[in-house]
Amino acid sequence: MAKLHNVGAPPGTLFYSGEERTDKIKITLIEYNEAEYFEDQYFDLDDCLSHVKPNMVKWINVEGLHDTELIEKLGRYYNIHPLTLEDIVHVDQRAKFEDFEHYVVSIMRMINYTTEVESEQLAIVLSENTVISFQEPHGGDAFDIIRNRLRTSKGRVRKLGADYLAYALMDAVVDCYFTAIEKIGDRIEVIEEDIIGDSDKKSILELYRLKREMIYLRKQVWPMRDLINNMIRSETNLINASSDIYLRDLSDHVTRIIDTVETYRDLLSGIMDIYLSTNANKMNEVMKVLTIMSSIFIPVTFMVGVYGMNFEHMPELKTQNGYYVLWAIMLTTIIGLLVYFKRRKWL
What's the pLDDT tens digit per position in 51-71? Predict the structure, then answer.
């Protein structure tokens, strides 16, 4: 469970708000240009920084945010503002983009969907020829495709600068949103069939869970549009004009995701209405049957009640064939009511 913010601490104080961890932070250093490539993993920051070369594009991926001393030390090395570092280790940030004098930072959520929506915070710091990504170590990320492109020199990533690398990382995160939404869409189709076919408690609980997940996903995706638009409008020299077209394409992807999320939210609300209407109709059918049965047997019960009274002097008690006459009257009453209900289309 995430901790609350360190209330009362001075601005810029690093306080990790995620789950407690004791393992070492893993740092992956990737350096490249069009002709050269280097990749290695470290658990010591000084060892990692000793391999940094000034003439190559660098990607430093930090897996783990619980060691605030290491984060602070890395921040001092790259002159990252303490307020930015505070946002990085406080893992419940809303997606945002901030432009500083010598770097820009984008904070967003990485989404993964297996049986439910899971997310973790990702911060990408872009400075001159350097991208630093900070993420929580939750068993993988969305960047394997980027690593493979770098290793095999496929695509544009080895030919362009650090700003394109930052875009590629964000694009990989957004692609995971598409994957999660597709899986949720498949689940919605199954739930819709179950609800319309024969709704049960399990189906309605799954429907509520999916609706809650779509609300959560919407909260994560909506700020991404502002983040990317702020990057496009930013006047920083760290983002080349040639990267604007890719950022605009990324903005279009996020807009499509937002539209899909809104569509699915409306669809889930519609399925919920169908479920409630179906249940109401079933209850109405049950009540109609019970009402008709009551209406049929009330006059018959009245007749039986009258002749069940224990008075000594009742005129009809001595009538020959009175029992059969009463049965005939009751059956005629029942048949007459059934015919009447049928003509009124109540049956």
Answer: 888 888 899 999 888 888 888
Give me the number of domains the chain comprises: 2
Task: For residue 197, give Cα distances in angstroms to 16, 177, 271, 274.
Answer: 48, 30, 12, 11
Domain that holds residue 307: 287-343
Q: Does 215 share its domain with 305?
A: no
Q: Would you state the structure tokens that stand for residue 161, as one six-digit string?
A: 């600068």
Q: Are 210 and 309 members of one domain? A: no
Rounded to two decimals, what is the model's pTM? 0.73
> pLDDT tens digits for 245-274?
888 888 888 888 888 888 888 888 888 787
Phi, psi of 166, deg, nearest 5 = -60, -40
